[in-house]
Design goal:
heterotrimer; A mainly alpha (about 675); B mainly alpha (about 500); C mainly alpha (about 200); A: about 675 residues; mainly alpha; two-stranded antiparallel sheet; 2 strands; C: about 200 residues; Four Helix Bundle (Hemerythrin (Met), subunit A)
Chain lengths: ~675, ~500, ~200
């Protein structure tokens, strides 16, 4: 098969699966829904591997498949740009998606919306693939909105829960803010570059760099890049648009793993990397990216420390890791960002699915205070979660170590404004990451068993359904459909960094897909010190980040295993800090009061002044009166009498005769 | 005094349809009682094979025959296929409706076939006389079809109005044609264009004739102030006939406008453009505003037709940029006319689906035609409510439905012709118009059904209506295919 | 003024008068008779233009067939023309204004100034033995064969439409069906019963 056929197959197979499962969700049996969607995604994965082979051999493809519409000189196309960047994303998306599909069989086994759920996640896979394979901004935006839509649907999957509905509304609104910037960026590009095709836009980038935005006088390229990055901030949950991601944990856990950890939230990272030829031209935009990323990486890590809900801890760790990727983008280490994206996709999916497995074992109780000592009952989940935690914290030789250490090193070597701040943040972030990760690990798998005495305070009172283990009941290992993906994901979480760091980062594997300006090329500086993956790992054992990580781990061990009473005491002593963290830096409260409240006040003003006076009074009622009047008049004309109709025709004729005759 | 046998090959499809009409006439006479479905089957076969013949005989070469009275070009072939397909779909929709009302007789199919033949003659006319005769053939058949339900007072009244006013419009048209003949000395359309270009034709008389011709044309298209028959006929005729009156003849009228105005009298375009622009603007206002006040769906759709045809005329009146180079001019002209064609084709698709839904809701002894009859359709049949939803959204021009792209391309043509004020006005008016389309959606989805009888409709209607809905949806997802076909078909003939 | 011109004006005057009477006559029979008159004079006008065939056809077809049919219909139906015309007089002034305007514009355009009657060459004297009818026939069957055929189709449609709209089979119709009459068998009609002889 040629590459184009493969690519079409990759996109259409999940779509077809989704359509079958979705359109006939009330008719077909469960086994058919999951087999057909899994088959679709498996085909996409297999084809992606074939494409990977070709691309690895140096082939690239940029083809317009279908011209969707034309407006003047502006073309809206559907097309594929397949190079090493997109093929890597395709592999990550399809493989994680496949694992999540399989996992869902076990996780959602008793849910009434089983078929619908499979349809959604396959649809998501389709949309995400359209996004990464796109060769133009229109399709990128389509994929962008489509993944957002599916994410919205899935966060609110259990739509009878008020909290889920609140969470999906929040995700929807916050993402609109990001999309506004994104659209602005795309609009500026369309207006000034006159094209929406990647290749054409990039070819015109040097000209764009010299222009200024006529209305404001800002450098055009900076305005474009910041606009695009605001879009990425919404989708990849960077401060201050991060608020939707923790709440999105209201969705089922497989979704948290697939969409809100491994793939969709990394769309922003991918997009910025794809736009590297533009971002390289604006140092201001790069610094902006850098500072936002660094702040996110550190501050979100702190929040992970005080959470008690197992999924929220993982969610905050995702936010923090996204911050790391953004830092890498900011220092122009795009390949490092994508590299971390890839390793993170595997170990974070692993952690999420592990958390999901724990939740199944605990009969849908998510509170870590009711867990402890689970290693005895859920051995596979325990081991795989440990691997995930080690990878996340950056233990040498694990996948996360290679990507994270490179980012820290790149931040250290960068000379952009703000790089010192970023270096400090990411370094401290290592300690924080280790602390909250091991805190979670110890609370869940070690220490005293707390589930048998948790009985009554475990279930959420507002839902009426019983959660948690009954007194005397013991957790047990999840079914094979749940632990198999854990095992499969554990493998890349350990080894993928070791094997791929050298080609991806230091042998310019991405080739022309990523463009780095001469002045910003920190990775070449990092490369000078690079002596191979094994060297880097053993050297990492004596480095500062590893020391910080050990400190974090030991502190967690001390506080949650050796002296479990201390945390409460510390919280009491540092009450203001604890309160700040518990309230998530008051972001939500701020948004609630300023944006939501302000919008309500504004809305009220507009409703009073604009709506009731102008629109209701003048336009609607006036309009209705006008419409009524015209309708009445035309009803008079439409008398039903033939001779009046004929008369009207003759009058019309006379009118046009008089109109045209004198013009000769 | 030898006459040469004319080349019949370009007219094979017309000849086939005529022969088959006669076959249907005879077969129905002798076997109609024994095989009640025979006329329907033969008619459908005729329409399908007619389309196949048009397809097989189509080529990029422009052929003239019958003493240059008949023109066979790609544009004509495209329109003939569209007309035949529209008629075939309309027949499929209408069958059960006619059956229930005792109208499913051979005469109906015969008249439909003759109307189709008339439209095909119009499409291929290169001579004013032929154009007129084709128009009469089509109109006469349509008048009779409207009156076919002769025990129904409303239908008879509608037919009477249609007939008398149609005769008046034909009179206008014929009179205008005679004036044009007086000014140019010819009835042959390409010859008229040549006379205008190379000889100083008598412009006053020409324009005088032009106004009459435009009036006749406007009647057929149904735009203000020649629109009065539209609501009465749409409402009074049996729904299956309304479906036919409201769909295929619009395609034929569009060809007539292109052949007469663009093909024949392009050199006086500034005059007819002004007239079309005015009629279009009046139609958009009157159509959209009056539609809001209607309680009867058929009447509402009639006013919506008036506004849609106005929109289409806007594009037809925007084919020129002053001072553009010849290549640019051709490009922009083509753009505007293909926008108009695209608009007409999508309009026909949508109106087929809308009337098809009404037929779906009707049953023996009950005609669904009030807005209330649509209430709660989503509960009675979610799938067909979705089809109607797509249709209504598309008619309203909601983005990413095909109607949106149709409106968009018309607006683009307007802007290219520097008529930004008109474009803004058209947008405002279609926003107002969106109200009554969305009201239908609201009734279907948010109101309790008034009658909850299960839908009884034959499989053919269900399948065809579903296909129709899917085609509208697909055309919205991928509008450019249809658009480029329209541009291509027109490009070979202009 | 030649004799032909004089004839033209006479015919034209009668034509206009007859046409006005058609729409103003209160008795429908009178209106039809005036219409017949109008057709006759129009035929005369065509005769002046040397269109003999058309003139004769007009008289034969319209006067001889159509108008007679018309008269039959009007005499058979009892139409109260006055009631139908109630609004005629109230709409008349407005109609007259519009009609007047229309006529004014038409005559403005169609007078000699624009229409250039002088520029039109006088029709050549036809050669001896020229047959208008033959010429028409030749054109109709050669150059205009296509519209001629189509016109025939229109007539066919008219027949079909007329039958479809007016023909109805009444329930009590006593139509004969020869085929059934011939096919009838004795046993269908007559039943022979063998009755035992009655004894009293």
């Amino acid at each position: 098969m040629d590459m184009l056929t493969l690519c079409i197959g990759i996109v259409l197979a999940p779509l077809a699966g989704s359509a079958v499962a979705g359109l006939f969700c009330r008719v077909i049996p469960r086994w058919l829904a999951h087999s057909v969607t899994i088959l679709g995604v498996a085909i996409a994965l297999a084809f992606s591997m074939l494409v990977y082979q070709r691309v690895g051999a140096g082939e690239t493809m940029n083809v317009n498949l279908y011209q969707w519409a034309v407006s003047g000189a502006l073309e809206f196309n559907v097309g594929f740009l397949i190079d090493r960047l997109s093929v890597l994303m395709m592999l990550v998306v399809t493989s994680v998606s496949l694992m999540v599909h399989i996992y869902t069989i076990g996780y959602m086994a008793h849910d009434p919306g089983y078929n619908r759920f499979f349809s959604y996640i396959s649809l998501f896979t389709f949309a995400m693939l359209m996004l990464v394979m796109s060769n133009n901004f229109v399709q990128l935006f389509f994929g962008w909105e489509a993944v957002g839509l599916v994410s919205y649907l899935l966060i609110g999957f259990w739509h009878t829960r008020p909290s889920a509905v609140y969470a999906n509304l929040k995700a929807f609104l916050v993402n609109r803010v990001g999309d506004f910037g994104f659209l602005l960026g795309i609009g500026l590009l369309a207006a000034f570059a006159g094209s929406l095709d990647y290749v054409e836009v990039f070819a015109r980038a040097p000209e764009l760099a010299k222009m200024v935005e006529p209305a404001t006088g800002w450098p055009l390229i900076t305005a474009i890049c910041i606009g695009l990055f605001v879009g990425a901030m919404g989708k990849s949950a960077q401060i201050p648009l991060h608020v939707w991601l923790p709440d999105s944990m209201e969705g089922p856990t497989p979704i948290s793993a697939l969409i809100h950890a491994a793939t969709m939230v990394t769309a922003g990272i991918f997009m910025v990397a794809r736009m590297s030829p533009l971002f390289e031209l604006s140092e201001t935009a790069l610094s902006f990216v850098l500072v936002i990323g660094a702040t996110t990486a550190l501050l979100m890590g702190f929040l992970g420390i005080v959470q008690t809900d197992i999924k929220r801890v993982v969610a905050y760790s995702t936010l923090s890791q996204l911050g790391y990727m953004t830092v890498a983008l900011g220092v122009s280490a795009y390949s490092a960002a994508i590299f971390h994206l890839m390793t993170h996709a595997f170990f974070k999916a692993l952690l999420f699915l592990g958390a999901g497995s724990v939740i199944i074992g605990m009969h849908h109780d998510q509170d870590m205070r009711n867990m402890g000592g689970l290693w005895r009952y859920m051995p596979i989940t325990w081991i795989t979660s440990l691997i995930g935690t080690l990878a996340l914290t950056g233990t040498p030789f694990f996948a996360g170590f290679y990507s994270k250490d490179t980012i820290i090193e790149a931040a250290h070597l960068s000379s952009l404004p703000g790089a010192e701040y970023a270096y400090f943040c990411v370094l401290l972030g290592v300690f924080v990451t280790a602390f909250y990760s091991f805190r979670m690990y110890f609370m869940v798998f070690h220490g005293t068993e707390r589930f048998d005495r948790s009985g009554d305070h475990a279930h959420h009172s507002d839902e009426g359904e019983h959660h948690g283990l009954a007194p005397g009941e013991e957790p047990e290992e999840s079914p094979w459909t749940v632990w198999l993906p854990l095992l499969v994901l554990a493998v890349p979480s350990v080894v993928i960094g070791y094997f791929t760091i050298e080609p991806i980062l230091f042998e310019s594997w991405f080739g022309s897909a990523i463009h780095v300006g001469q002045a910003h090329d920190v990775l070449s500086l990092v490369a000078r010190e690079f002596r191979g993956a094994r060297e880097m790992g053993s050297h990492g054992l004596f480095s500062l980040p590893f020391g910080l990580m050990l400190c974090g781990m030991l502190l967690a061990w001390l506080l949650y295993i050796v002296r479990p009473r201390w945390p409460a005491y510390i919280a009491k002593v540092f009450r203001p800090v604890h309160g700040l963290l518990m309230n998530k830096y008051f972001f939500d409260r701020f948004n609630e009061i300023v944006f939501a409240g302000g919008a309500r006040v504004l809305g009220h003003i507009f409703w009073r002044g604009g709506d009731r006076l102008v629109i209701d009074g003048l336009l609607v009622n006036g309009g209705a009166r006008l419409v009524g009047w015209i309708a009445h008049a035309s009803r008079l004309l439409q008398s039903g009498r033939i001779y009046q109709y004929a008369f009207a025709m003759i009058l019309g004729l006379l009118f046009f005769l008089t109109l045209l005759s004198p013009r000769v | 005094m030898n006459s040469i046998m004319p080349n019949l090959y370009p007219a094979s499809a017309e000849i086939f349809v005529l022969i088959m009409a006669c076959v249907v006439l005879i077969v129905d006479l002798y076997c109609g009682k024994k095989l009640p479905g025979i006329a329907f089957v033969l008619t459908q076969a005729t329409l399908v094979f007619g389309g196949v013949i048009v397809w097989l005989t189509a080529d990029a070469h422009v052929a003239l025959t019958f003493s240059k009275m008949f023109i066979d070009d790609l544009f004509g072939d495209f329109m003939k296929i569209a007309i035949l397909a529209t008629m075939a779909i309309a027949m499929t929709y209408g069958r059960s409706y006619l059956d229930d009302r005792g109208l499913n007789k051979g005469e109906f199919y015969l008249l439909a076939l003759f109307a189709t033949l008339g439209m095909m003659v119009i499409v291929s006319a290169n001579h004013l006389l032929v154009l007129y005769i084709g128009l009469e053939l089509m109109s006469l058949s349509l008048y009779a079809m409207v009156a076919l339900r002769r025990d129904d007072a409303a239908a008879s009244e509608a037919a009477m109005k249609y007939f008398v006013l149609g005769a008046l419009a034909s009179g206008f048209l014929l009179y205008g044609m005679s004036m044009i003949y007086g000014a140019t000395g010819t009835l042959q359309i390409d010859e008229i264009a040549r006379q205008l270009a190379y000889h100083a034709a008598n412009k006053t008389v020409l324009l005088f004739g032009l106004v009459f011709v435009i009036a006749g044309l406007a009647f057929k298209v149904g735009v203000v102030p020649f629109h009065m028959w539209v609501p009465d006929v749409y409402q009074g005729a049996p729904t299956a006939v309304t479906l036919i009156v409201g769909s295929a003849p619009k395609l034929a009228a569009f060809v007539m406008a292109i052949r007469l105005l663009v093909g024949g009298m392009f050199l006086v375009n500034e005059y007819w453009q002004l007239a079309l622009l005015l009629m279009a603007s009046f139609s958009i206002v009157l159509g959209n505003l009056t539609a809001i006040a209607q309680r009867n769906v058929k009447r509402m759709l009639a006013y919506s037709t008036i506004s849609h045809m106005g929109f289409m005329l806007l594009a037809l009146a925007s084919g020129v940029i002053d001072g553009a180079s010849v290549a640019d001019l051709r490009f922009s002209v083509l753009n505007a006319y293909s926008a108009a064609l695209f608009y007409t084709v999508t309009y026909v698709l949508m109106s087929l689906a809308a009337f098809g839904t009404l037929i779906l809701l009707s049953r023996a002894g009950f005609d669904a035609e009030m807005l209330d009859d649509l209430k709660g359709l989503s509960r009675r049949s979610p799938w067909f409510a979705a089809v109607m939803l797509i249709t209504m959204f598309s008619m309203a021009g909601v983005p990413f439905f095909v109607g949106f792209f149709a409106k968009f391309s018309v607006l683009e043509a307007l802007i290219q012709a520097d008529r930004i004020g008109v474009a803004v006005f058209a947008v405002l008016m279609s926003l107002i118009g969106a109200y009554y389309y969305l009201r239908v959606v609201k009734l279907m989805y948010f109101d309790e059904p008034v009658d909850s009888t299960p839908l009884v409709a034959p499989t053919g209607l269900r399948v065809m209506l579903s296909v129709n809905g899917v085609v509208i949806a697909l055309a919205g997802i991928a509008p450019n295919s249809l658009m480029s076909i329209c541009a291509l078909a027109l490009g070979y003939s202009l | 003024m030649t004799f032909a011109n004089l004839l033209f004006y006479v015919f034209a005057a009668i034509l206009v008068f007859a046409a006005i009477r058609v729409i103003t006559a209160s008795n429908p029979v009178h209106a039809v008779l005036h219409l017949v008159l109008a057709f006759f004079t129009a035929g005369g006008l065509w005769m002046l233009l040397r269109a003999e065939f058309l003139a004769i056809a007009l008289v034969l077809v319209y006067v001889g067939a159509v108008m007679v049919l018309f008269l039959f219909v009007i005499m058979m139906l009892d139409i109260n023309i006055e009631r139908m015309r109630e609004r005629f007089w109230s709409n008349l002034p407005f109609g007259l204004v519009v009609g007047g305007l229309l006529i004014a514009e038409m005559s403005l355009v169609l007078t000699a100034r624009y229409f250039d009657l002088d520029a039109m060459p006088e029709a050549a004297e036809p050669p001896a033995g020229h047959s208008n009818t033959k010429e028409l026939g030749r054109l109709i069957y050669t150059q205009y064969a296509y519209p001629f055929e189509l016109a025939a189709v229109i007539l066919l449609v008219a027949i079909i439409a007329a039958i479809a709209l007016t023909h109805r089979v009444r329930p009590g119709n006593k139509r004969l069906d020869p085929a059934r009459q011939i096919a009838v068998k004795r046993k269908d009609r007559v039943r022979i019963l063998s009755m035992p002889a009655e004894k009293d």
